[in-house]
Structures are given as C-alpha cells and as structure tokens.
Fold each of these.
Amino acid sequence: MGANDFASLPHIGESLKRKEDARFLTGAGQYTADVFLERQAHAVFVRSPHAHANVNSIDISAAKDMPGVIGIFSGKDIDGKMGGLPCGWLINNPDGTPMKEPPHPILAIGKVRYVGDHVAVVVAETQEQARNAAEAVQVDYEVLPALVSVADAAKKASGVTIHEQAADNQCYKWALGDKAAVDAVFATAAHVTTLDLVNNRLIPNAIEPRVAVAAYNRANEEYTLYVANQNPHVERLLMTAFVLGLPEHKVRIIAPDVGGGFGSKIFLYAEDVALTWASKQLNRSIKWVADRSESFLSDAHGRDHVSHAEMAMDKDGKFLAMRAHTDANLGAYLSTFATAVPTILYATLLAGQYTTPLIYIEVDAWFTNTAPVDAYRGAGRPEATYLLERLVTRCAWDMKLGQDEIRKRNFITQFPYQTPVALQYDTGDFHASMNKAQQLAEVDSYAARKSASEAKGKLRGIGYSSYIEACGIAPSNIAGALGARAGLFECGEIRVHPTGSVTVFTGSHSHGQGHETTFAQVVAARLGIPVENVDVVHGDTGRVPFGMGTYGSRSISVGGAAIMKALDKIEAKAKKIAAHLMEASDADIDFANGEFSVKGTDKKLPFGSVALTAYVPHNYPLDKLEPGLNETAFYDPTNFTFPGGTYICEVEIDKATGEVTVDRFTAVDDFGTIINPMIVEGQVQGGIVQGIGQALLENCVYDNETGQLLTGSFMDYAMPRAADFPNFKLDTTCTPCTHNPLGTKGCGEAGAIGSPPAVINAVLDALGPLGVKDLDMPASPHRVWEAMQRGSTTPTQQPQIPPLTASTQGRPTA
Ligand code: MCN
C-alpha cells in the first residue's frame, strides 16, 4: 500500500482520545515502582560527595551489622567479575585513531569522577534500613582538584587528569566537511557574520525518576529486570553481552508504564546492572527507586556545548559557506550514546533549511568531573538548530534584512536535496511553513503590538527559527559505517486472534507518546476493524520478538513501518484464505474497509470470517497454506525522515526587572502524514515547553571549583510551569515522507528543537536598540537585566555585576 492510499484510510488523521489514558487517569497504571515481588529487598546506593577523589578504602564494618542489612557490595566485589558500561557509538579522530574509551565501572574502582558517582550498593529489608546503612558506610576519599567546565577542559591547562587513558581529558576530535574549500570561500566573501554561544547544560526531569526491580530464579537460572527504560531489548543486549557476560535469553527486561524519559531512560545505567547481579548473589529480588535528588545527580544530562560559528555571504545575503567549532562536554564517563550526540546527530543538521553549499565543522569532546552527558530530547539537533538559527538571524541583522527575508532567500526549494553534511532530504516545503507561520503569527500587525508594548514601558521583540531535524535514525548499514554499534531497524508482530481482534507487539516503547492509540489506529485502518479491537504490547523482551526502542522520534516512522510490513504479510495470507473460501484466484481478491471481495462480482467476506477460518481450518488449502494468522516483520529505514517548520516567538521584556514574558508563540510544522493530530499537537506543545524552558529558565550549574551540583533540586533548577506560557498557535503543512509506507515524519522532538532560537532571537530583537548583541540561555531576569545595564557601553564602562549563581538564575522570586 502506498503512502497516499494509507493517508486516506479511515482513522488516519483522526484525533481519537488516547486509549491508555483510561488507566493513567484512574490510577491503574503499572509503573516499575508498582511492582512488588516476593522476598523483595531494597537497595540504596552510596554515592560520591566529591567531584574527583581517590577512594583509599571503604569500611562497611559498622554498616553490615545494622538492622535489616542483607548485603553490601563495592568496587572490589565486582572487579574482574563484570565489564564496565559500554559506549554504543565509536567516533574516530581525523587521523583514524579511535576515541578514548576509559572504563566505566558499575561501582567505582579506586577513584570517583563526579558528585553522585556510584561507590557501593547496600541491600536491606526496607528502604529506610538500606538508607541508614548506606550512611554508615565509611569511605576514605583523597580529594583531587576537579575539572568542571568544558571551556576549561578545552584550554588544557587544568592540570587535572580524569582518566589515565586520556591524559589531556580529550575523548576525541572530529570533523566533517572540506576545510580548505570552506576557508577559500571565506577569504573572498563579501560579508562574514560571526557568533559565539553556549548551549546550556540541562537536567532531564521526567515525572517518574529511574526505578528498577531485579529478580533471579534459581530454578531456571533466569533473571527478570523491571526497569523504567525506553528500549528494553537494547538494555538487555548491552547488559548481557558487554557487562555481565550472560546468555541473552536468560534475562527478561520489562519496562512497563514509564512516566516519561525524554532521552534520559535510553541508556544502560550502572544501577540496573548492579541490581541484576546482586539479585543472584543474595538470592533476593531487589528494588531501587531513585529519589529526585539522586536523579539530578546521576541521570545523564543534556547539551553543554560552547561554540563559535561563522557564515560567509555574498552582498545579497546569500549563504556561501559556513564553518563552526564546538567544544562538547561528555561528563566523567561515556554514557551509552554520548559520543554520537555532538557529532553525527549534530553536525549533519548544520545545513538546516538552506542551500549553503559548503560547511565545515570541528568538534572537540572532553571529559569533565560532571555527570555523564547524553541524548536529551532532540539530542544534537537542538544544539545544531540553536547555533544555525541564531547565526542566521545575526546574518539578517548584519545585512539589514528581515529575519524572514534572509531565510526565504536561502531556502532549499528542490527535493531530493543533498546537503554538504551527508544528509539527503527527501521532501519539504519551507516557504509553505514560513508563509503559514507568518499568517498565523499575524506578523503584519507586529509593529502595532510593539508600539503598544512601548506605551506600557516594555520592550517587545520578535524571533524566527526555521528548523529541520533528522528523525527515525536511519539505515543500519550507514549508521554502522558512521560508528553505531547497534542496528537501527524495528520489529513488529501482528497477532490476529480467531475472533478477528488483534494484538500488536512492537519493539518501540511508549513512555508518554500515545503509541497504544496511534499504532492501534494504523492497524485498525489497514484491517478495517474497530480501534477498540486492537491492543498494543511493548516494553517486554519476553513478549516482543525484538526491538530497538524509542528515541530520535522514530517510533511511528520506523516502528509503524515494521507494523505495516507485518500487515502486508497478514493481508497477503488472508487474501489466499479468502480466495479459497470464495473459490476465486488469489489475484482476483481485493481487500478494503475490512472486507475481501472478488473483482467483478458481489462476493464478499468480512475480515473476521477469514481470521476465524485461519484458526478453524476445516475448509482450508492446508496443502498450500499453514493455519493461523500471525506475522512478524523487521523494517530497516532507507533514510531519516526530515520534519521541518518555522517557529515565530514574540516576547515582552520588563525594563525594570529584565523578566521575559513569551507573549505569542506560533509553530508550523511539517510531519508528513499525521496519524493522530491531537497526539501530535500534545507532542509539539510538550517540546515547545521544554525548548522555552531551556531558553528562559533551566540551567544546570556546577560549582566550578568543587564540582558540586548547585542546581540539585527544584529550588534551584527552574522547571517551566503552565503559567509561564501563552496558548501556542499551532498548525501544520504536509509533504509526506517519500520512503516509508506511512508518509510520516517524527514529531516527538520538533518543539524542543525549533523553539530555543526563536525565543532568544526575539529577546535579542527586543534588546537590540539598547546595543545588546549577545545573550546566552537561559535568558533569566538577572542575565537580561545585566545585559540591559551593559547595553552598548564598552567593557570598562560596565557596572560591576556579580556573576550568575544558582540562586539568581531561576525565575524572579518577587
Ligand atoms: N505521530 C503521528 N503522526 C506523525 C508523527 C507522529 O500521529 N506524523 C504520533 C506517533 O504515532 C506517536 C507520537 O506521535 O504516538 C510520537 O511519535 P514519534 O514522532 O514517532 O516519536 P516517538 O514515539 O518515537 O517518541 C520519541 C520522542 C522523543 S525522541 C522524546 S525525547 C520524547 C518524545 O518523543 N520523549 C517524551 N515525546 C515524549 N512525550 C512524553 N509524554 N514523554 C516523553 O518522555
């Protein structure tokens, strides 16, 4: 079935209410913490209070005899018995040598490298007893100087060595593009615009923190791990093959209802491994529930780039070449996909929506004494979009062009389009989304709104961002050639039951995205059966054949495509059964609206009768066909999908306090064919909120001397709240993806990718008349006020303003 035929099926494009919400809204959800196993004990991790220290000794003598204590394990207990956490993506330096891959032990061996590093695990009858005993574990630390900021790491002057395998703390250097060709264009360009910026470090905060419950069964030597995770099969593969050396089939991983992940639950974490291993040592099931402070310290963080970018233009503002350099903070150890984020997922997006013919990008990646940094909603693509869209707006201002005009002059209009940074876009219509966004944002009446703001004594600014992203990562062979150590296909199984209802088993994982509804819509549409008759099973290696999980907005375009392939097989087999029953040849059978018919006759059979016949094969071509109607398919995409759009933000700024209010926010996205507009709108809203959160509120701050996390709770880490936003104006355009059978493009990260530069461009537009050219995220009242005071004055005339601290970076307290 072609993508156009698919888009016209019933249920496709219908805003059906989410099937899963019935259980979520009535308290019947089954989250990992809701799992209670027989003989369940509780684990608490002893974590490093220091950013960098030698561990001279660990004394458990007092702790081990405390009430309820069952076992205590530290680095010496696991040393030599298991591997460390693996990194799933190999990056090579320009000279072909591999990146530095220091060990990432499950429990620290000899040294701790960030505040929160796991030193020991205490297992006791109750959580309180485990916590008390953990506090009684005596660790003798010899504190070492810490290296915290990526800017300091890049200077190579700290004198700190975090891993002996990387004496200068550099993990890799990586580059993409033809430097000489780019430099030659810059040498003769009519105009060059430059920009320095920081992409601030973020801490993911899903509603449900990380949780795991592990059990070992002595009878069959099998382990079961319930865990809040986004890709259970990948977690199982990494844990068995790389860390514990167990046969894969002896471990079952179940990720039941998961209360959000945003990337932070893709990874294999040390706690999951420690629990699984300890469950056998102690012959007890063991539960660990992270508290929020632990999550702040030990979940993988996101972003943390320092970049310099330049655009060469002709006299009319046409982009001729771009070059950039980025220093990326990887934290203390390599998390599962950390190395791909500032390289493959970042640099390849730097063409954006524009025809820039030449691009050169260099990335230096550094270890620091901070929590590991890995994929967080958007993963590399928000960083690319922020850099590019800030640069493009700066180009507009330098060239005295409108933010819209410079974009329109440079938009790609011919597809497919081969970018100079490896990707080939299949479709898009960037003028369409820009035009629609401008209409919806009522940009024609912006001048009147600006005057009205000025009359109130406020500043008003407007900011544009035209983003593109690459979702549904990507052909396995290409990803493999680029360093991926895993495949990137998806698996789907369709089990048609004798009564014609269907269970779908998908390797994708839903942790808020509504797959139980949208995947059911796809199946119901194809088979012409009620959506209520389709159930979706995910997140269980014991029930789903295989899967690569959910990240990179891949689920509908890759997971859904696998389901479509399995449905093709179901349809082909069912047609043979129908042909037999209606005494026609296979080629004469049509299937539409849930009915099989014989071409040119009025003979018909409903889908349910054919399903029943497959399981009650009394009148059946048993010599040619097996009974049953159950098919599995694996789908490996031939390309990424490329959602894109234009976002327009209008802000008002209070001159007295520097407080920024987002007054209007308009987003027009192209997600190709849309299965469920309500769910897509929810995804976009959530993403925009996260993006504006980064732009205005959220910031992870470590003390630069000690490496202590200063924003380790919601008191200091400013999460966005509903009252921080206006109602967003959302709309879509549609150029269906050309290479998957649904025509869909991913929508799950778009909002977080497109929105930060729109907000900061708006803030800078408002502050421009005061001479402010630069401002890093988050544009907190303190920073904006500081920038306003500085304005166009020279540095020596600037008032002395204290540096930004954790307590001044959030929303105003008054
Ligand atoms: N969809 C659709 N039509 C389209 C595209 C998508 O109807 N053209 C639907 C899909 O069927 C699915 C939802 O929209 O129900 C999101 O689909 P997709 O864009 O394929 O993204 P994924 O399902 O793969 O979700 C991953 C993406 C990512 S990478 C992050 S991070 C993220 C996000 O989704 N984390 C989330 N959204 C989240 N939403 C919630 N509530 N919680 C998270 O942790």
Note: DSSP finds 22 helices and 28 strands in the chain.
Amino acid sequence: MYQFNRKEYEERMKWYQDARFGMFIHWGLYSIPARGEWVRSTEEMPEEEYLPFMKEFDARDYNPKQWAKEAKAAGMKYVVLTAKHHDGFCLFDSKYTDYKVTNTPAGRDLIKEYVEALREEGLKVGLYFTLLDWHHPDYPHYGDRIHPMRNHPECSNENRDFSRYIEYMYNQVEEVCTNYGKIDIMWFDFSYDDMRGEKWGATRLIDMVRRLQPGIIIDNRLEVSGEGRGSLYECDPTPYHGDFISPEQIIPPEGICDKEGNPMVWEACFTMNNNWGYCANDHYYKPASMLIKKLVECVSKGGNMILNVGPDAKGKFPKESSAILAEIGRWMDKNHDSIYGCAPAADIPKPDYGRITRNGNKYYVHIYENTLGPLPLIGFDKQDIVDVAEKIDTYETSIQPFEDCCTIFVAKHPVTKPNIDVIRRSEENLNEKIDELMKQAIETVEVIEVK
Ligand code: GLC
C-alpha cells in the first residue's frame, strides 16, 4: 500500500519543480458547441442534445506533433491533456464505455498519438482525468450541485449505484495507466461537497496508479478543488495526498507553505482567455507580456504555471493562442535561465520595480518598471557580489553604494527598456576580486520585451 515518504517524494518532484512551465489542453466534444467545457452543466443541457456532437467529432485538424512543437517552442516542459472531462466523453479507447472517440468519425485513440508526439519532443506526458461524470448512469444526477440534470426530479438517484460508478472510474484510470507507457503526471479533477477522498475510492485508486506508474506526479484534487490545499499541507498526508497544490486562476499571494511553514510544491493553472474548453466568442486573451510576468511571479514564489489552450472542434489551436505561445517562446529562448531550476530569492525582499528568482548563487532580477538612475539592490551585500551580467546592450554596469544600499546602474540613460539583470553571488568571500570584476564588461546583452 502506498505511503508517503518524504525522501522519495522530494526525489520524484525534482524534475517537475525544475520545469516550472507546462501546457494544459482542454479538448473534447464540448469544443464543438464552442461555449466552454462546462456547457452541458451551465446550460443544463439534456444528453439528447449533446450526444449528436459525437457524429461531428472528426479531429480533422488534430496534429499532436504540432501541439507538442508549439508547447516546446514556448518553453514548456510538460503537457496535460484531458483524457476525459466532466461530460464523460473519452479521448481514449476505453473498453468500459461506448462513449469514446473510437465511435466518432475520428475513429481512433487520440491519446495514443498525443503521448507519442510529446515523447518525440522530449516533453513530459500528463493526462487530466475527471472524477465527475455527467454521462454515467450511476453518477448522482438530481440534487447534485453541478450535474446538468440537477434540477430534474425525474432524474432521481434511486436506482443509481455509486459503487458501480467508482468501479468504472477505477477501471478507466487503470486503462490509462496501463496502455500508454510512462505517464509523468496525472491531473485528477475535482472534489466538492461530500464528493472527496474515500468517496472516490481514493486509497485504492492511488495505490493502483502509483503501482502501475512509479514516479508519477499526482495533483491534490482527490482531496480538494482549486481552492483547497489537502493533507500534505496539514502535514498529515493521506495515502491519496496530492503531490502538488493546484490553485486555479490565482497566484498564491505569498507562495504556499505547509502548516509547519515548509515551502510546498504548487502549480497555478490559468486560461489564456476566460475558458478552458474552446469558446468561439471569447476573444479576451491575456497579452503574452502579462503571462510572462505571471510565470516569473509563480517562480519567484516557488510555484509552477500551467497555461491552457482550448483547441477548436477540429483540434486546431486558436490562432490567438498560437501567437501568444510564440511570443512567450521568444522571451523564453533568451531568458529561460531565470525560470528553469529557479526558486524564490527568499533572502531578498521583493523590489518595487520587479521580481527576483534565484538559482543557486545566481539571482535573476526581472525589471518591470524602470528606476530613474541606478537600480537599488536592497538585500544584497556589495561584499558578496562577484558579477553583474546585464542583459541589455551597450550600457556599462557598475555597482555603487547609495546610503546603506548597494545599487547598479542599469543604463547610462535614465529610461531604459525593461530587462533582466543576472547577479551572481558567491558563497565564498571573493572580496579581493570585487573591484576588478566591477570594472568588467557586461556579459550578456539581451533586451526582453515586456510591456
Ligand atoms: C475546474 C473545472 C474544469 C477545468 C479545471 C482546470 O475545476 O471544472 O473545467 O478543467 O478547473 O483546473
């Protein structure tokens, strides 16, 4: 039986914490009506109106290699795709249901192609699997808080046997963990009301998942939803504890520490517009410059960011999403050092002009707002600084004291483009070299376009 072990846990989380940036993909039958993945629930749509979408699902433009390429080019290290969302429709060939992609014009297992495409690009493979199921006859209908039929007394739960549903879900998760080789992340979604933990048969389920997929990373939603934390936070992990906290559409203001004050692993998930599943009318995309800052913010607070794309009915990424990914990629190409493997610069107070991340003895100072004149390096001791590599052309950098604080001149001009400076701080005392190093030319000359 699986039991939490701190050492093994830290070991398996290593790659994921270094990765920092991933892609979420929400795709399924709901992409056809194009009003978001909750369409059946929000519109209380009876299944007779929804099932016909199966006849239309042809995945004509489905090209997971292209998805993988775009994710990789954006600097993402892992991807999580909805194997099954709340509507219950499966993108994989499950032998426990007919409600699956092989019975649509697409006619093939799409998860198989997806995992292969990711591996080819060297990306880690994640699958999202819902705990809810609005299609299964044994899942509560009437009176459930979110089921599409919640307001229909004629859909009473009298003859529904929830244990049958749990068996069904268990079997499908077993399929997903058996038929596609190594799965790196399993993203379960989500617990609500009394539907949590053992109600989902969680101990048995997770024991099976971890047995079939050693080293797999699992989110915390068998215990909670996006707002909750779970038993690892309580410092009393259940056998189905999540490996990471999954705040939704919010960056925890101060990162997340467990009850005893130890930093925790977390991943903030974000939509690019305001929907996870494709929504034809939602053109309210966040600019790439903002999303880059949010990624930096997550890393500066010790978390990951997973950014969503909702492909259209045919399987194509919306063009706005592709453009945003490409722009993020241009930034990541130059600056990924300040993201991968980085952690909070916990010993340095957050400056008012931007955010700092840290990797060992390097500090990455992301400057969002220019100072007039030199940039104050509050929290750094001049004696400790051995090198400043400014990522901007033509300007000289020098370190100057200002009152008690050390400052750097980021430019000769008072107004410069936003940029990143890398400050390398030595653990040893390299006092003697400092003056010489201060005079050295700038190492890196990159300008980061951040609005
Ligand atoms: C929510 C929604 C869901 C989405 C998920 C992503 O819990 O139910 O549609 O998949 O968030 O975090």
Note: The first helix runs from residue 6 to 19.
Amino acid sequence: MVATPIKTEKRLTMQKAAIAADTTAIRSLDWDRDRFDIEFGLQNGTTYNSYLIQGEKTALVDTSHEKFRSLYLEQLKELIDPSKIDYLVISHTEPDHSGLVKDILNLAPQITVVASKVAIGFLEDFVHQPFKRQIVKNGEQLDLGKGHLLEFVSSPNLHWPDTMLTYDHGTETLYTCDVFGMHYCSDNLFDEHLKDIEADYHFYYECLMAPNARSVLSAMKRTEALPEIKMVANGHGPILKYHVQELLKRYQSWSQAQSSKEKLVSVFYTSDYGYSDRLSQAISRGITKTGVAVEMVDLKSAEAQEIHELVIRSTGIVLGMPPIQGPHQKEITTNLGTVIASVNKKQSISLFESYGGNDEPIDTLSTRFREMGAAVGFSPIRVKDSPTEELYQLCQEAGTDLGQSINMTQKVQERKSLDHDLDKAIGRLSGGLYIITAKKGNLSGAMLASWVTQASFEPPGLTISVAKDRAIESLMQVEDQFVLNVLEEGNYQALMKHFLKRFPPGADRFAGIDTQAGQNGSPILTDALAYLECQVVSRLECSDHWIIYSQVQNGRVSKPDVLTAVHHRKVGNYY
Ligand code: FEO
C-alpha cells in the first residue's frame, strides 16, 4: 500500500504584532522548513523574529532570512518609512537573521549598524559597501528616548562568536536572537503553551547551545546585573513572556549539568564567516550526542590562560587548522602555541582543516603531536573545497566516534556495576532483527536494530528505538524516509556481521552489499526477507534513546513462509 505524504505544501507567511510599548514584532513564519544543517532536523518549522522599537529614535533589531525578502520588506514599510530608521541592531550575523541587512542598508543608507566588534567584521565581509557603524561592548548603552534605554550584553559563542544580547530598560525586554529560541512555528506569538514547545526548546539547546555551556553560564551571569527580565524577544519561535523565569532556569541547569560532566572535549576553531564555525559545530554536535561535554573555543578571541586551563581539563582536543594568514594572526598564533604547549600524553588529539588549502599544514602538526606521544582521536579531516553535506556528516560521525571511544571505558565499568538479576530479567525481552537504511540527498546511513515494534493499524505504523549517539539518527528526523529491512531466521549472520562493524566516519555502509533503491530512495537490501518503506511522524525523547514513530508507506515480503530472525539477549544493559 502507498500512503499519502504527510506534508507537501511549503508555506511562508508573516506575522506583525505590538508586543510592548512602542515595540512591534515582525515574525517571518517558515512553516515547513525541515532542516538546519545536517544535525538539526526540524519537527515544527521555524520563525525568524525581528523587532522594531520606536522611541524618539527608532531601532530595528535583526532582520530576516533572504527567502522572506519581499514579504518582510513589505511588512516593514507598512510599519515605518525605512528612511526614518536610525539604528539596525545586529545580535548575530548568521544569514537567517542578517540575510536582509544589505537590502535594509540600500533602502535606508542613513542607518547606523549597532553590533559587537566581531559582528561588524563579519558584516563588512558580506555587505561589501560602506555603512555607518557603532561597535558596542558589554554594558554600553544607547538611548532611543521615551524610556527605551538599550543596554548591550556581550554573549560570545552563543552560538557564534559575534553574539550580543540587548536589554530595553523601558519594556524590560531582552532581545536574544538565537539564545533562548526554538525552532517552532505556530500562530502563537507567545509561549503560553509550555507543553507544546518544551521539547523543541530543549532539542534546540542541545544542538546549538550545549557545546557552549560555559559561555551560556557566563552570559547569564552578565544578565544578572540587569533589572528584571519580563520578556525574552528571541530570534526563533514564540516570544517568551508567560514562562520566562522557568525557561531561563532550564538553560541554567542544562548548562550547569554540561559543565559538570567529567569527560570534556575542547574544540578549537577560528571564527570566520564560513566553514570553520560550521565544521566545528558539526563535530561538536557529534560529540555531545554521546553525552560527552564540549567546549568550543575561538582561537581568534580566547585568552591564553583560559585555553591552558581548558586543555588541562580535557580528555580530548579537537583542533581546526587556522588560516596561514589573515586578520588576528598574532592572537591565533599565540593561542595555537598555548594549545600545543598545554597538551599532554593522556589526551587524544584530532585535527581538521577548514580553509581549503590556506590552513596551517595539518601533517606538520599531526607529526608533532605524534612525537609528543599523544593519541589520535579521529583521523585528520581534510577539506579541499567548499564543504558539502557529506563532509558535514563525516564531521558529525567523527565527533560521535570520538565521544564513543572516550565513553568506552566508563561504559564497560557501568555495565559491571548494575544489578545482575535485573540485567538478566530485562535480557528476557526479545525483538526481531532488522537493518534500517536511509538515504537523503547524498547522505546515507544504516543501522542494525532490534527494538522495533508495530505501533498502529490505521495508518500502519511502527516504533523504533534509536540510541542518541547513532549516526543514522540524523537521517531519521520528522518527515525523513527510510527502509526497515527484515532479516531472515537462520540466514542473517552475513548482513548482521557487516552492519555491526565499526565504520570509519563518512564510510560507505553499503560497499559490497547488494541493494536496490526503494520508492522513497533508501536502499532495500536484496538479501532481506522483507522490507517496509517508512516516513518518520514523531519522535519521543527517552533518556539515552529516541523512540521514533513512523508510518509505513510501502512494503513487500520476498519469502512468505520464512520467519523473522529473533534477537535473544542474555542481559538487558546493553544490546
Ligand atoms: Fe538563527 Fe545562528 O542563526
């Protein structure tokens, strides 16, 4: 049978609303966006929020994604003649918020752009035209009149090095862009329905903020000097108004939990408007999926003492090769020297290129670390051209591999310490044996699974439990499609052995295996007893696993009289 795809129509709409005195939210609603980079599947679309504050002077806080160009500019012009805007406050320069900066400056060249020093540097690189600017530091203020005194809070690394928050003393509103946001698109302007949004709020934190937990805590500490925060005007999702304190508290406790983890990997990169940031984020996300903490550190702006202390605390070091030449070379060279000098033999070192041929040579450094006796974490990742989706996937898998190897010793000890009778009792639960295969664009993955069960009749649906640190989990986000291949009793060993292998990051899981493409594009294993083509409907977070509910769209049995292979286990505390 073939089921109807869950969603096909792609919608972009706008929402404009007064949210406080002289303050209007202009929200770009991207209902069906389903992915932010490889690691970040979106269940509920997203929004890009921009704000207009009209005191005696007028400030626009952030813009929108370029896909909203005409819709956004139309809404803005309905609110104000652009030639009357005095300031454009840039919280952070990623294109989903700054995609229309150039358009705004063309419409209103009188505008003064207000941003952190790092953000102004990034803007110069992509605006390519002169513009008035005001670089602001932590604690500096800008008075718009009518009580709207803006105060800026430096918050580097949340999640880019250029980020700053802006507090309006007049409305007690904190403008935060990515921070305290979520990818959740609905007509609700505010967060009144906490239950609806809390899973997305947490997932967003895990993907974007967890690798910068220490910076989250530092920024939150800085906000303590502000008067009460009554509203958080974020850049994604509903504005926080009804549950502000609760949701801020969650960031605090998640970040404290991250920071107190015993196993830490420091990821050093060099911020740029480009690849190093994204590659390091993909690696970091791969590591945090395994439960190991990450601290991302920008070699351009970190202090040598901070680097030294972090390296000493770290179990693993990941180092993105900085460019051979460019701005901030002195700081980069000093900080790179500090990393090298602080590393010890007990740590693993992993290196990646980021600038496509213009980096410090990876082999020289690799040899140097080897001679020092440091262990290799993952094999050096080499980047010759603009990164592709496959490269980002490889980076994430390399991070996951690294995290898993760091966890290995600890996990074995934990297994031994569980109650033996309980382990044996849980081990009596059995399941079938299956291989999940998925292909999305040029990305593909596969996994041996046994925690699979039918979950609904109409439409036919099933659940699969997937460990959070599985590489294929990134390809099983809501609306993603995959194939569940059913293995045959007495004839599953070869496939099981193949897919149980530890594949190096980025490796082709299907080399040497006979497959054919299913209707949904994912590989069907020729030697499977049956297959089901599925589409993910929803995901439920369950401790160290995701339970993934999917609808079955299509299926076939090749040997009707043969039974499914069964997985019997002795103990229940591992597979
Ligand atoms: Fe929402 Fe980092 O951009």
Note: The pocket of MU-OXO-diiron is lined by residues 92, 94, 96-97, 159-160, 178, 235-236 (CB under 6 Å).
Amino acid sequence: MAEAFQSPRGFHDILADDSRRFRRVSATIRRILESHGFEEIVLPVVEFADLFQRSIGENTDIVQKEMFIFKDRKGRILALRPEGTAGAVRAYIQHRLWTQRPYHRLFYEGPMFRYERPQAGRYRQFHQIGAEVFGSESPAADAELILMTEKILKELSISAEIQINSIGCRKCRPLYRKALLEFLEGVSSNLCRDCIERKEKNPLRVLDCKVDSCQEAVANAPATVDFLCDECKDHYKILREYLRESKVKFVENPRLVRGLDYYTRTVFEAISKKQETAVIAGGRYDYLVEELGGPPTPALGFAVGVERLMAELGKEGDQRHLYLVIPLGDALAYALRIAESLRKRGEAVEISLRRGGLKKQLEFADRIGASYAVMVGEDELRGGYYTLKDLKTGEQKRIEFGSSEDEG
Ligand code: HAM
C-alpha cells in the first residue's frame, strides 16, 4: 500500500460521534444567542493580513507568531482569520451598519486558524462562535454578555469560573502603563527573553506570559483597577452591581488583561476547572471601530471555543435517534415503503446495506448506535405489518403498517 496521507499537524477531523457533540454545543449556544436578539452574519475566512495587525496588535503573540499568512496571485498579503472580531468590525464599517439602526447584536460561527503549538484543547484550526454588540456603552451590555456566558456554561453543565476585570480607557491606561513599566524594570532580570522585548513595546502583554518565572515576577505588579479614571471606575462598579442583581457568579481577577490589544474597560474569561484554560473569553473594544476607519462606536463581545467546550462534555446526550430498517428475504420494496413513511413522520431512517442474517444485522444496528431496528421480512410483508425492536430495552412489538400506532 502507498504511504497514506495524514492531516497537517494541528488540523483535525471531527468524526461522526464528535460531530454530534459539536452540533449539540453549537445548537445550544445559537439558541441562547438568538434568545437575546443576536443575528447571524457569515464572514469570510480570509481577510487582508493588515486588518489583524491593526486590530489585534502588532506586538501580540497572535500577530507575531501565529498567523497563517500568504500572498495571492497578485501579491496581496492575506491571512486566514485567527479570530472573528476584526472581521466583524470590518464588515460593520464596510456595510455602514450604523446607518440601519442605533445598535447591533451580531454573531458568527466558523473555523479560526492560529499557528500555535498543538496540544490538548489547542489546535491550529479550531472553531469559535462569537457574539459582538456594536453601539452600546452601557455596562448593561457587558453584564448581559457575561450573563449569557454563564447561561452557556450552565446549559451544557460545564464547571468554569467567570473572571472579570477592567483595564481602563485612553485616559487612564497611560497612567497604568507607566506604573507597570516602572514595576517591570525592577523585576526585568526574572523575565523571559520575549517579555524583555514585550516590556518595551507592549508592557501589558507581560502580564499574560505563560512562562512560570514571568508569572512569579509579575505576581505583585500594580493592578489595572487601581488606576481607573472616574468614568471607568463607575462603569466597572455598575457592571458588578448588575451582575450581582442577576445573580451571576464571578470573581474579580486584577491580573486579567487578555492577549489581544483592542480591549478597553471590561475584560472577562470563563476558565475551565478541568482544562485550566479559557473556554469562553471576551470584553469591550470601544476604539476599534474608529481605529479601523468607522465612526466612534463603543463595542464589545465574546467568543466561545467550541472544541474546548466539547472537551468538557461527556458522551451522554449524543445518542442517535435512528431507525435501522432491516429488509429480510424478499421484502425490500415493502421495507422501502415503510422507511419512507417513517421519514414522513420526521424520523431519521436508514435502510441497512449490511448483508447477512438477523443476528448480524442487529449487531450492526448496535454498532451504529441506532435506537430502533425495524425488521421487515416476508411474514411482515404478507401480514402488512413490521416488527419494531427498541434496542435500548430489547422490547419488541408488531406494528400494523398504516395503523394509528404506525403513524405515531
Ligand atoms: P481569544 O481569547 O483569543 O479571543 O479566543 C477565544 C476562545 O477561543 C478561547 O477562550 C478559546 O476557548 C478558543 N481558542 C483560542 N485559541 C484556540 C486554539 N488554538 N485551539 C482551540 N481553541 C482556541 C478572541 O478570539 C476574541 N475575538 C474574543 C472576542 C470577541 N472578544 C470580543 N469579541
């Protein structure tokens, strides 16, 4: 045999069993998003690389190390999207959506690409479902997104801690940056090589470096919340009040800064206990629309890592509700009629293509996870009925074809 191809590292297939879990996660989230008035937009997977450089930030890991960049035939520099916010903002500006209504609630779902070192829960192609709100400055919008984050976790029975922080605005961030820089100068001998460079270009990024020695070095770094201006302080205070009123459980993490540069004020993450990493993450980005050429528009959002949520779930709830129709002897035409009538009732029905006797057929039904076997042989044909076997309980009964029981 010729040597078989493998998928590239970090690119994975989602086979049928996982695909059912994928759909379950996606359907749950979409239902929650739609119940809060969010509407879907479908965005391209490819954008100009500049868009990400200017939004996520030149000195972030994503832009410096993780983008899949390529030239098209005319030499234009394109990138596979590493996340969805930049594209959503680009679309908001390109289609002048602010002319349609005062604010928008949009969501998207699809693959994202980051050249990261693959490991459990970290892929080079992964899927996000993201929600973005354009045009609201109100802390009620932040509270609603965090409430939705909690709802997603609850509905999927996922145990994760919601952490929040505020990282300030144009007015107060420079003061924090200065204090942080001073602090980092004092501990710079303990920082990794990347962080020595980050410190100069983008000191906030040092706070989310994953290297142990850096984490220890910044343990006593100044906290963003101690430098907030009055407006940011108020915004954060009202957000926490709303969250408490809505009984959302959260903890304040003064070290939370997020790995993308566009954030302002509120940032939040849901950290899974099991995976010790973020499964849902987001925040406010009040200047991004303006920075990318649109009118000043406060905005905020979050993205769910679909594979990371899937990794939290057990297999229960993913059984197929499938009828396997087993034609035996000379009853194929009759079996096809029965299958079609079950489908008309809305059932998922497969005609067995397996050859062999009843025993083998029932083993096959088990193997593919069918819920029911519908046995159709010559006796059934002559008698105008079929034999329905519940594969979970083993219970078997005869059902007259066309009877009220048959019609469900
Ligand atoms: P992010 O934190 O870069 O934020 O990614 C959001 C989520 O995507 C993470 O919490 C994680 O669950 C998942 N994720 C990220 N990288 C990977 C990977 N390599 N493999 C598997 N899952 C991954 C954003 O992307 C922002 N756009 C979120 C946002 C929306 N902020 C405002 N609006």
Note: Residues 83-85, 114, 116, 121-123, 126, 128, 130, 132, 278-283, 301-303, 305, 307-308 surround histidyl-adenosine monophosphate (CB under 6 Å).
